[in-house]
Amino acid sequence: MPAQHLATKFSELHGVDVELIAGASGVLTTQIQQGAPFDIFLAADMAYPQLLFTQQLALRPEPYVQGLLVWWHPEQTTLPTRISKVVIADPQVAPYGKAAQKVLQDIAPELGQVILATNINHAFTLIDTGHAPVGLISLSHLRYAQIRFDLPKYSHFSRVPLPSQPTLLQGATIVATTDEGKLARKFLKFIQAPAQQRYLQQMGYTAL
């Protein structure tokens, strides 16, 4: 995934190990509130980092990238007009799920069952393994899969049209209890640098 690529590149440049803990932004926020020993939090929105900042559990958040939500319909080249099942990430804890819920309310075709995944990675897996014909996921997941597996199904997606395309500005914050504040700051600046922003743009994000 893009985050792993960036972590590996940063490790090579600075000679340090970067351990990634994946999860829905809301779940990771709760873990930080409960004292999880994280150094930096890369969220899928600005709201969760801002919450930690207001609770004095993290420094003021900064945006690092903007995500894009797309319809993925792997077995069809176009979005079907009738959908029996659709997968989204859980809107209670996942910003992409919250954005997807709004899209469903605004412009969805006729829908059947809505399946909630624990996070955006789980949503991708459910669609990829055939648990539902359609889902709303991040474009970055498809870009990564296209590059890694080069299968036609990862090109079968439709963009959410404006004005229903949500703004998914993603924020990062340094956790207040970290002993690696300088290194965490260096990692954030690394992600925000032009070279990494170009890479993220290639991977389906909108650069800052």
In words, what does this structure look like?
With 208 residues, the protein is of the alpha/beta class. The chain folds into 2 domains: 2-65 and 167-202, Periplasmic binding protein-like II (D-Maltodextrin-Binding Protein, domain 2, 3-Layer(aba) Sandwich), CATH 3.40.190; 69-159, Periplasmic binding protein-like II (D-Maltodextrin-Binding Protein, domain 2). 40% of the residues lie in helices and 21% in strands. It is built from 8 helices and 8 strands. It has helices at residues 2-14, 25-33, 47-54, 95-107, 120-128, 139-149, 181-192, 194-202; strands at 40-42, 62-67, 69-72, 82-89, 110-117, 134-138, 157-159, 168-174. Strands 5-4-6-3-7 form a 5-stranded mixed sheet. It has a 3-stranded antiparallel sheet with strand order 1-8-2, sandwiched between helices. It starts with a helix and ends in a 6-residue tail after the last helix. The model has no long low-confidence stretch (mean pLDDT 95).
Short characterization:
The chain is an alpha/beta fold and 208 residues long.
Based on the model shown, name its key terms.
D-Maltodextrin-Binding Protein, domain 2, 208 residues, 2 domains, 8 helices, alpha/beta, 21% strand
Q: What is the CATH first-level class name of the largest domain?
A: Alpha Beta
CATH architecture of the largest domain: 3-Layer(aba) Sandwich
Task: Please trace the helix and strand order, writing H or E for each element.
Answer: HHEHEEEHEHEHEEHH
Structure summary, number of beta strands: 8
Unreliable stretches covering 5 or more consecutive residues: none
On the 0-100 scale, what is the average pLDDT? 95
* Distance between the amino and carboxyl termini: 19 Å
Main β-sheet, spatial strand arrangement: 5-4-6-3-7
Compute the number of helices: 8
Domains (count): 2
